[in-house]
Amino acid sequence: MKNRSPFKNRKNMTILLFFLAGLTFMVFVGRFAYIMVKGEINGEDLSQNVNNLYTRSSVLEANRGAIYDVGGNTIAVDATSYSLIAVLTDEWSNTPEKPLHVVNKQKTAAALAKHISMSEAEILKKLNQENLSQVEFGSAGKKLTYDMKSSIEKEKLPGIIFDETPTRLYPNGTFASHIVGYAELPTDKNGEPSVNPSNDDLVGLMGIEQSYNAELTGKDGSIEYQKDSFGYVLPNSSVKSTDPIDGKDIYLTLDKRMQVYLESIMTEVNDKYQPVGMTATLMNPETGAIIAASQRPSFNGTTKEGIGDLWQNLLVENTFEPGSTMKVLTLASAINEGVFNPSETYMSGSKTIEGGKVNDHNVNGWGQISYLEGLERSSNVAFVNLMEKMGTETWKEYMDKFGIGKTTSTGLPNEQEGFNPYMWPLEKANTSFGQGLTITVMQMMQAYSAVANEGKMMKPQFISKLVDPITGNEKIIEPEVVSEPVSKESANQALNYLKEVVYSENGTGQAYKIEGYEIAAKTGTAQIVNPDTKMYYSGGNNYIYSVVGMAPADDPKVILYITVQQPIINNSSIIGGDVVKAIFNPVMKRTLEYQQLTDESQSQNLNQVEMPKVTGISKVDALEKLNEAKLDVTIIGNGDAVVQQLPLPQKIIIKNQRIILMTNGAMTMPDMTGWSKNDVLKVSEITGIKFIFEGEGYVVEQGLMPQANMQNEETITITLASP
């Protein structure tokens, strides 16, 4: 057997290695070619990865729309809250001189206890936890304000840091809280907000914040650009940006002045009598605008203190029997049908109806009395009689026209319809005096507006306008007439009769007189169904006490409706109506005072004009200009051009105010009969001539005849007398 030559073996090996190298090279070439053509490897887009490596992007946060009162005062606005964190590990501390962790736990606990609602011992326990790099402080360390954060920072505590979170600020505290509602960040199952939240993540959870969440919510923008590995923007690279879109701002119809005052009165009465519930609603009947509205229980919008007491908005979500305040609608309907004769009489006390009996609150009644006296005394029998005179179906039609049993569509969440079975004769009779049917506060406010507004029933409105904060474009919410259940004449007549409830010797509303103003009102004491027995409570203060007042009675500018449920009264000399009065009288008085001041201010502004410049022009042109401004002009001199004027140009003056002009001719004495002393002094000022006054009042005599030359006079005597 021959041995193979070593040379030949090496040659074969070389050939094999050559082919293997060539094959490997071809594989690499093919792979690279594939990558170059496809631009991906293992399913990853390489060009995208390179782009991601050098591309930087950031979110441009949008703001949630703010909520303002009718005058532009802030009610709800975006803010930042802070969460307190303590760093326990020293891993991140680079130098002992500047530690980034808690060094002295005892000192830190003592300092923090001054600023958050945790004891020093509780804080120290948190700080002494082992195997943790950092700790938080539960609810006590969350939702801190900027002021609280600043106060803690002034302690200069190493290792104490803060985490920022978008939040919603309600700077007025308890302020129509169930109407305004609130917005918060959505949370996970552990109650923690999402990672890196922004303002457009806030979600409305109650009231207007909830029902107008879509309009209030903004949309974040973004910016994208390319940088090199050192962080510098690449030359000639494009910047892609999308501007954020802020949410719409909402202006309410609420007036901050009246709302704050109402809240203070409600708190005072609530603390004193601790009722199960209270509502107070103030409305402009001409537009349906809600000027102020409150309830108890309520809560602080920012701190949420009290929110657990009652989630329900009592103005639209709670239904109850209205009681005798319903008689306002029965009265207006009966007048409109021509069946209310104030002098006609009936027997008061009780009335038998198929299925039962209707009693007056004074079971024995007051004998044979007129229907007007029945209104004054709030007789149930009188109103059942009026319903029968109208006809039960006609009365039902009026209730439908007044919106009983239908929502008012205010836009607030969960608004209820109420309930009116209206089947059996006794059920039908009971509705005439507000029993056996249920309503909401907003339904009653809407219905009352028809009586106060010449028969036109206005939809209640909480929103004045929506405004785009970028463009300034406004969407005005116009007043809306829902229907006209009664005529103008019937509504006005009803107001006249309702004044008797307050001002007659038999009136149940005598306590609601407001000095200096005339009030039309109706009181109510509604029974409450016991949820356990399904029967009415009896005795004690187990009622809903109420009043509706409209003022000024001859042309109402406001309606105020108060309800107080089951107040605690420990004084035998106090009745349920006194609790209602404690809210109604101060709030109505303050409202009417504001209304009067506003009217006077508007009247004054309408009469104000700016004094034009008329010197240097002809007398004819000056008179024409001043007559257009409705100014009372007196001319001194017989020239043809004006050389001096009082008041001076651009001064704000009142229409019909006396204007003194001096021409370039000889000075002539004006006829001053009936002038005030101040007007005479204007002539003295412009001519330089001294006037001597005798008496007080207005000019009755003057020492120089009208149109006489006064050029050379040093003094002129003016006689004044009382008119």
From TrEMBL:
GO annotation terms (biological process): cell division; cell wall organization; peptidoglycan biosynthetic process; regulation of cell shape; response to antibiotic
GO cellular component, one term: plasma membrane
Entry-linked InterPro entries: Beta-lactam/transpept (IPR050515), Beta-lactam/transpept-like (IPR012338), PASTA_dom (IPR005543), PBP_dimer (IPR005311), PBP_dimer_sf (IPR036138), PCN-bd_Tpept (IPR001460)
MF GO annotations: penicillin binding
Topology within the bilayer: Single-pass membrane protein
Alphabetic keyword roster: Antibiotic resistance, Cell cycle, Cell division, Cell membrane, Cell shape, Cell wall biogenesis/degradation, Membrane, Peptidoglycan synthesis, Repeat, Transmembrane, Transmembrane helix
Pfam families: PASTA, PBP_dimer, Transpeptidase
SMART domains associated with the record: PASTA
Domain (PASTA): residue spans on this chain: 605-665, 666-722
Compartments, as annotated in UniProt: Cell membrane
Presence of keyword tRNA-binding: no
Family classification: Belongs to the transpeptidase family.
Role this protein plays: A transpeptidase that forms peptide cross-links between adjacent glycan strands in cell wall peptidoglycan (PG). Part of the divisome machinery that synthesizes the septal cross wall. Beta-lactams inactivate the PBPs by acylating an essential serine residue in the active site of these proteins.
Descriptive protein name: Penicillin-binding protein 2B
Taxonomic source organism: Carnobacterium iners
